[in-house]
Amino acid sequence: MGSVQDGPSLLAADLPIAPLRTIRYSALQSGDPKEVGRLLEACIHEGFFYLDVTDGEENPAVLQKVDEMYDFMREWFGQPDEVKQEVLSSNYTDGYKPTGIFAGVRENTRDAYETLKVSHMGIKKGATNPPPYLQVRKGMFESYLEACNQIALRLLICLSSQLGLDKSEALENFHQDKEDSNSTLVLLKYPYQEPDLESHQIGHNKHTDIGSITVLFTDQWGLQVLSAADQGQKEEQWKFVEPRRGCAVINVGDSLRFLSQKKLRSCLHRVVPAKGQTVDRYTIAYFLRPSNSATFVDSNGELVTATNWHDRKYEVFKATHADQRKDTILTGGLEPISI
């Protein structure tokens, strides 16, 4: 069953830890004005926070689904490469991606993680010839996607209320379940690597997320956020997000930043091996994305649809580091263009 491995007792003393707020989901469900206010503050200032899902309506069931998903991932990713290659992704929302497709953390390297994706629309509409993992575990994916979707929508409803948005501007209205979107569940495996091998391709390059809300569960170290400079420091610092049992890690994505007229912060983050960790790293990420037809002004100052931003950003993920620096897309406009 899923559990925190190489956890805080082993690693925290040696790692710089991001001071993220913890928001209680049960308090958001009950409309607690103080907690809703804290949610807005987290989304404005840090763009990342912990969401405690250990109590409240049906919340413990979410954690049971997380454990079930971990068990599935260890089994599925443990298959021979030729089996996984049979369901290679033909788009950006479903199927398998091996390591090395995107740019890596270090200059002129590629990434070091593999993924399996299940799209929200793919589950809803169904496929005439679904892949084996959907034929056997469709119920598991359906229930997990629905649970995470409800969490993300609740966050949007709370943010709309706290921002004083009228019905036509409410953030949740850009995420209608009846409309097509690129919302996707992504299962990620980062094979264990020695963190001090300079020539080795590692991790997941710095980026901002494409969509609106990311609901992420992980029981292992590796995720870093670019935190605001501490007192006495001149520059922002990469700090690790501590894995916490019973908490999802939530972050604001580009689309929500743009839809909020940049009131909300989409924070830069990456994944690197943590010194002292000795196991593979598994992450379960649900990406809530706007309806494909939703429009906003992007980091280049252009009016685009959500699906256009989604597809362009994935193309940039695959580009070389030199090409990535020629545009604002990879980092959502949070870093200057370098040519």
UniProtKB/TrEMBL annotation:
<dbReference type="Pfam" id="PF03171">
    <property type="entry name" value="2OG-FeII_Oxy"/>
</dbReference>
<dbReference type="GO" id="GO:0016491">
    <property type="term" value="F:oxidoreductase activity"/>
</dbReference>
<protein>
    <submittedName>
        <fullName>Gibberellin 20-oxidase family protein</fullName>
    </submittedName>
</protein>
<dbReference type="InterPro" id="IPR050231">
    <property type="entry name" value="Iron_ascorbate_oxido_reductase"/>
</dbReference>
<feature type="domain" description="Fe2OG dioxygenase">
    <location>
        <begin position="180"/>
        <end position="290"/>
    </location>
</feature>
<keyword id="KW-0479">Metal-binding</keyword>
<dbReference type="InterPro" id="IPR005123">
    <property type="entry name" value="Oxoglu/Fe-dep_dioxygenase_dom"/>
</dbReference>
<dbReference type="GO" id="GO:0046872">
    <property type="term" value="F:metal ion binding"/>
</dbReference>
<dbReference type="InterPro" id="IPR027443">
    <property type="entry name" value="IPNS-like_sf"/>
</dbReference>
<dbReference type="GO" id="GO:0044283">
    <property type="term" value="P:small molecule biosynthetic process"/>
</dbReference>
<keyword id="KW-0408">Iron</keyword>
<comment type="similarity">
    <text>Belongs to the iron/ascorbate-dependent oxidoreductase family.</text>
</comment>
<keyword id="KW-0560">Oxidoreductase</keyword>
<dbReference type="Pfam" id="PF14226">
    <property type="entry name" value="DIOX_N"/>
</dbReference>
<dbReference type="InterPro" id="IPR026992">
    <property type="entry name" value="DIOX_N"/>
</dbReference>
<dbReference type="InterPro" id="IPR044861">
    <property type="entry name" value="IPNS-like_FE2OG_OXY"/>
</dbReference>
